[in-house]
C-alpha cells in the first residue's frame, strides 16, 4: 500500500467515478483503475462496488476512506513540520549571555532580530557568567553562549570573535573619585575594592589579574560580589569601588559613575560566541548567521 494509491482511492471515493477521479489526479483512466485494483489485492478485500453509473464504497472502502484521509493529512503535517525544522523555522535554541552584556546594543539587537525573524522558535536566553556557560556548553544543556574565552581554540566548541571590550573604573556617585577622577591605578592602592569570585568566571578573572601584575598593581579587596550587577550595587551603596568591563556602562546604574583610565583601557577583553561543534540544529545556525550579520 502506497500513499500514491491512497490519494487515488480518495479521489475515486469523493467523485464516485473512475473517469472523474482520473481527471482530478491527472492520470489516465486505465492506470488509475490498475492502481485501485492493486490496492484491493494488497489489502485482500474489495473497496469499490462497480456499477453502470459509477462506483460506490463497500463497508471496507468506507473504513479505508476515513483512515486514508487522516493518514494523508498527518503525512502533510509531518512533512511541513520536518521542513520547518530543517530550515530552523521551528524548534528550540538556548543562549547564555554574560549578565554584563545583556544591554550591549549589538547583543540586544541580536536577541530582538532573532525573536522577530523566527517567531515559532522557542528562544531561551539565560543570564550566565562565563564559567557556568562553558560548563553547560560542554555538557550539552546550552546551545550557544556569549562569553569571555582565553582563546579561539576550545575543545569540542566552535567559536566566533564578537568584539573587543576593555575595563573601566566604577565609583560611587558621591565619592571623591567621581569629582576628582584618578589618572593612574597607583592612586587607588589604598582604596576599598569590591571584587568578583574567580570560580564564576576564571578566564575573565585571570586576564584581569595578569594585566594588573604587569602594571604591578594589587587591588585591596574588602568585599566580594557574585556578578557585575551585584558588584555595581555594592559600589552604588558606597561599599567600595570596582573594576568592571566597559560593557557595564551600556546599562547605567543609579549611584554609579563609570570612569576611563588608560591603564584599564589597554586591557583587551575579547568577547566570543561559542557553540558545540556537534550541534547541527538549523535553528542554532540561523542564530549564528544573524551574529555574522550584526557583528562584522
| CATH homologous superfamily assignment of the largest domain | Periplasmic binding protein-like II
Q: Any idea of the CATH class of the largest domain?
A: Alpha Beta
Oligomer: single chain
Q: Return the average pLDDT rounded to an integer.
A: 91
Counted up, domains total: 3
Strand content: 15-25%
* Series of secondary-structure elements, N-terminal to C-terminal: HHHEEHEHEHEEEHEHEHEEHEH
Q: What gross morphology would you assign? A: rod-shaped
| Strand arrangement across the biggest beta sheet | 4-3-5-12-6
The CATH topology of the largest domain is given as: D-Maltodextrin-Binding Protein, domain 2
Percent helix among the residues? 40-55%
- Count of discrete alpha- or pi-helical segments spanning 4 or more residues: 11
Q: Provide the structure class.
A: alpha/beta
Radius of gyration: 32 Å
Q: Extract low-pLDDT stretches.
A: none
Q: Report on the biggest sheet.
A: 5 strands, mixed
- CA distance, first residue to last residue: 54 Å
How many beta strands in the DSSP annotation?
Answer: 12
CATH architecture group name of the largest domain: 3-Layer(aba) Sandwich
